[in-house]
């Protein structure tokens, strides 16, 4: 498209081939043999991609700011210098065997939106910015979403700086080493509203053949450690009636959890992903089982109710097998509800650009979840193949990639009209 | 008791305090801090206890023979030199964290029976022997029951000799090293009948308050390797309806196996003792599960029927969860039925000595299971605390220990009257 033909913005679009080329080009920084990326936060490859982003910022005439957590902001001025910026963003770090889209897509699509605005001659009132958040994955330095967490006050910069990787290097040291400890204190950067574009990392959009997910929030998540204690016994000599089989009890508990979760509707997610058995011998009835439970639901009240029912009924199930159960909550992340106006901007941007869309709740955490605490926020999802993510085989279709970037662009344009009316 | 008072044999009894003292004395050979024994086959401690047994044989005037597998036989002549010996026995090797009774009790009680016969003046027609089988446990050299296996032709001596321990030492080398490779070819030793006394290694006798188990056989055992293949998926983003959760499917399969096993009566034992999950992460729906199944029943036809039903219904269960199942049989040990006459001798010996008794099927393997293939055989069980065995805390009550030894003695005496009538 030619920017000169669409000064009103209605038909403004990003440069698809250029976005796809950026994805391919930056995938070389930490690229793996299997077509994925290993680009851990604050490593040499992370510095390479950051430097690349800085070069792009300069090329489009943006102003680059790096804050004290290494977050990179690229600023394009608006017509009203008094207004705070509308911000798009995500992250450029990856999992150790990550794909080419998780996080990266949101940053590079934001870059394509900045370019489209810059080159179109379309004049925004608000400044528009792109942010690359440091260490969203948390693979090298835990926890995940570290720098948006510091930015929004979820924890302190001192805590983040002190975090060590497996080799004992602190986050603070690693940040210095790659030269990305910026002068601006993290969190002091103004943000009027925040939009994050991301692959779904789940199967819903692909399965339903829908291109755009208007993300209404991030579901509540709770993690539990379950321990079942029965009695170790000889598999050959111990009659069924005298057994206190911790693994058989665990099987009953797992099925009961699944049934309870299903009874609370299709938005409930309950997963036992880890199970360990003691003594773990073919001819010994297991005496001890430890297992994880990952529980999620978009609504805090519902997740609390599900937890309560599981606690009551799991204990009863275990008891019926002569086994005692302890269930300890080890993580609690309340639901995030994105700004209804921002979500509506996403829906309308999808409609305007001719894309199919539906509301969706994010099952995974994102920087947007923290940003939602301090400013109007929404997210945009596009499908990814087989719902696969955190995997070198992660894939998104070119058509969806371009469509999502255009929705991001138009959502930002809608936000410019919506906020701070003249 | 005084042997001079009971020349008819009816009131003949073993010397209880001496048997208990022998158990305590030999427990020092490999004794552990926790009160158990670590006396692996053909190690230095095994030589010590073998030497000790040889000394006892000489003290009671018995003739010691060691065969080419290191099996020790102590021979007391009978009145008819043409008759083959009645043999009592078990093993003196232990698990790495074994107890003081598994195997040991059968050998030392047999020794006490030999002493009682020798000192009483009671004259048996058959020779009476005690055997200490080499490497019953199979902890250092697999498989278990190795030397009774060679003795009865289950496998060859060459196979046994070539077996290596974890350090690469062969069974043959180790046997030479401790000086217990005897001249008599293994298997050429005549045996008229075989009786083995053992702790139950299960909870039934203790729970029912019964002192003697008349063991009618050893149940059939089959081991299986089950693998369930579903689809690894994100725990937060994958709706229940789109999951192919291998662990949830495994839970359904485990409960189904338990229900099928129970439907075949109280003698069926089905145990899943090992379970491993891939990828084994709290927030990932498991894609793969590997689990063991240990299946046992006294009847070969029944175990075959149970296996068949599990195969059909487990596959269906897994399929309902969108998961494929493979079930591979990796071990098959048919049922052993002991000689009905020998079992009856055990019942009568219990009755004669005033002990409560019941028929019982051995849930574990024993040297007697192999011996049952070549001669009339039976076993005698006594209770052990909490059914605990292969454990340093293994315990049997002194009263039961003495009672069992007396039943062994009287069963042998009954066998002497029963076999080869004059």
UniProtKB/TrEMBL annotation, chains A, B:
CDD domains per the UniProt record, alphabetical: M20_bAS (cd03884)
Entry binding sites for Zn(2+) 1: 91, 102, 198
Binding site for Zn(2+) 2: 102, 137, 390
Keywords, comma-separated and alphabetical: Hydrolase, Metal-binding, Zinc
Start and end residues of each Peptidase M20 dimerisation domain: 221-319
Cofactor info, note text: Binds 2 Zn(2+) ions per subunit.
Cofactors required: Zn(2+)
Gene Ontology molecular function: any one: metal ion binding
Family indicated by similarity: Belongs to the peptidase M20 family.
Protein name from the UniProt record: N-carbamyl-L-amino acid amidohydrolase
Natural source organism: Komagataeibacter diospyri
Lineage, top ranks: Bacteria, Pseudomonadati, Pseudomonadota, Alphaproteobacteria, Acetobacterales
